[in-house]
Amino acid sequence: MGIEGPFWRAIAVYRLASLAYAIVLLIRNDGYAHPVTSWTIVGVMALWTAVSAFAYPAENLRRAPLLGLDVLTAAGCLLASPYAQGDLRGAEGVMPVPATWVAGPVLAWAVYGARRLGALGAAVVSAADLWVRARTPDAPLLLNGVVLLFLAGVVVGHVARLAKQAERRMQRAVEMEAAQRERDRLARGIHDSVLQVLALVQRRGGELGGEAAELGRLAGEQEAALRELISARPAPSGSSDLRTLLLRYGSARVTVSTPATPMVLPTRYATEVAAAVGAALDNVRAHCGDDCRAWVLAEPGEDGAILVSVRDEGPGIADGRLAQAAAEGRFGVSESIVGRIGELGGTVEIFSDADGTEIELLVPRPAGSRAAKGASQGAEGSG
User: Fold this and answer.
1) Extended strands (E) in the chain
2) pLDDT tens-digit profile of 100-124?
3) Which end of the chain has fewer CB atoms within 10 angstroms, the N or the C?
4) Mind telling me which Gene3D superfamilies this protein's record contains (predicted)?
């Protein structure tokens, strides 16, 4: 039942107290003009108070039929009041038989469906109340009860919605904490077994040389990737830590450097930036060979922007080569890199000479994004 539990218990107590108040009024007025009708109405109120107290906390019963019966019962008791009070209705200080009990359904609707449903419940009960008052001779048409019902429905609905949101955030935080504890536990086990074996294979492969050296290199790459995987922290829902995506490219020949603080972006942004970096590294392997070293550097830029550079020690890009590739239908740079970053509103700059090539990707902060605010805060923290 979660955070709603206290709300349903409070409404049950309110109904019970309102029922007691209605009984006191009934006794003080000697059962009104028609005691049998009056006590019948109170009996219906008492029965529904008991039913609602057990039904609302049960999630499988808390559905539209229960909500509908709740407000219809309140409206019915309210509409039956004139027949019980007879000539006493409209007299100064005389309230309808249900008195304040009719606010119970409004509160229940508000807790179940927040402000809008609370206001709708208030409208239904208020319509019944105004109908009774309009048919009461010489009685002033007062709107105090209507106003109070709407205030109760809207305010309680708003508070209930905030409480549910807080519960969801807390649940998310608990899940993330539990996931991180499990990740830490697995990391300890992996560190004591798998990582040590991979490190041993890398070291022994380098010592033996030949095919064993290639096996050692692969083991070293997998060790680095596994270390980054088990050390990555989960990002908020709907967003991703760009560092986690970039660190997967790290290997014996690719060095990835990122800030200590998270670089949180909306998942689409983070995925596209990482894909552009992957395309740049693919170009390095394709045109510079598997032995060419490369460096990936990610850092926060101005106004929350993200700056990522990919540098290699290859022979550089010949003048006109990129234009020629695009003319020949090869769009590795123009589409996979420039096109991706351009769709995010960013820019790409390419610097190349005989000592190597550097590609700079500048991605602006997504406007109005909570994830972008996290990235901006991370940038300030790293400065």
Assistant:
1) 239-241, 254-257, 264-266, 294-300, 306-312, 347-353, 356-363
2) 999 999 999 999 999 999 999 999 9
3) C
4) Histidine kinase-like ATPase, C-terminal domain
Q: What is the pTM of this model?
A: 0.53
The boundaries of the domain holding residue 254 are 239-382
Last residue in a domain, options 144, 170, 196: 170
The conformation of residue 382, written as its DSSP 8-state character, comes to H
Residue 283 and residue 370 in one domain: yes
Tens-place pLDDT, residues 266-302:
888 998 999 899 888 888 888 888 788 899 999 988 8
Q: What is the CATH number of the domain that holds 327?
A: 3.30.565.10
Answer whether residue 211 is part of any domain: no
Contact assessment for residue 379 and residue 300, using Cβ atoms and an 8 Å cutoff:
yes
Rounded Cα gap, residues 38 and 221, in angstroms: 83
d(CA 75, CA 80): 9
Taking 3-state DSSP, the helix, strand and coil percentages for the chain, each rounded to the nearest 5, stand at 65, 10, 25
Determine contact, residues 119/150, Cβ cutoff 8 Å: yes
Q: Strand pairing of 306-312 and 264-266?
A: unpaired
Q: Is 23 inside any structural domain? A: yes
